Amino acid sequence: MSLQNKVIISAALTGAVTPKSANPAIPMTPEEIAEDAYRVWQAGAAIVHLHMRDDEGRGTMDKDRFVRTVALIKERTDCDIVINCTTAGDSRAGDAERMAHLPIVRPEIASYDSGSFNWMPDGVFVNSPQFLDTMGRLMQELNIKPELEIFDSGFMSAAQYFVKTGALVAPLHYQFVLGVLGGMDATVENLDYLARQLPAGSTWSAFGIGRHHLPIMFATLALGGHIRVGLEDNVFYSKGVLATNTSLVERAARVIREFGKEPATPDEARQILSLS
In 205-221, which positions are buried (b, 16+ CB within 10 angstroms) versus exposed (e)? Predict the structure, then answer.
């Protein structure tokens, strides 16, 4: 089967905010996160998106926790999952702290939030032009693929600005994040609009927060994108039924097959995303 018929499943395991009280399956420690990474790989995920939590369960950019978690994942020598590290795992972290783990961990992919917005009701999610310029150039030096997290339509034009200045290099990979309060609503119309703004040669993925998870997943498949699932974005499998990261990936893999395609392997994902 050609790569055109392969769909990448990314698994976002924990995020920075949702407490374990909301779903006991949310992994918190490096050991729990690494174990879930292995399980979702077995279930069909090609990429794992990593956040870290501190001892109180809050999001942290502690580089030592990234190092420990990635080392534990790589100890499973049969697991070839693509590692994608966040650069926005703690609203308290300064710009330097948000990038400190990248030269040490050297993930194949890292998140790149190409704009700022009011993340309601808690505060402003700040990604200054200066920070984005510095981080884009650092990712180039380290041969890390930026995953552009697109919360609103203006993020698309901001990304093209950084392509023009050389901080980013096309073709880019976009992740449409729909349903965050303060960003674009999770509607099929908004997803279709964003997909039509993509520069030629781009790759893209999408997800909807919470109850919008399934409609956006189905629409993404119909529009030719890749999909992201996981407890970072949605803690329920169905109404009143708690999910696990594995159950969400297993369902995504079934849906992809029912759609007439196949989940991409990690190496196929590397080819699709032009990872080195």
Answer: bbbbbeebbebbbebbb
Ordered by where they begin, the domains of the chain are 3-272 (3.20.20.70)
Three-state SS at 274? coil
* pLDDT tens, residue by residue, 108-129: 999 999 999 999 998 999 999 9
Strand partners, 89: none
Spatial distance between the Cα atoms of 264 and 272, rounded to a whole number of angstroms: 9
Quote the Cα angle for 18-49-227, to 5°: 95
Angle 264-267-269 from CA coordinates, rounded to 5°:
50
The whole-model pTM stands at: 0.97
| Spatial distance between the Cα atoms of 259 and 225, rounded to a whole number of angstroms | 13
Closest CA to 95 of 64, 67, 132: 132
CA dihedral sign, ordered 175, 179, 184, 190:
positive
Residues of the chain with pLDDT under 50: none
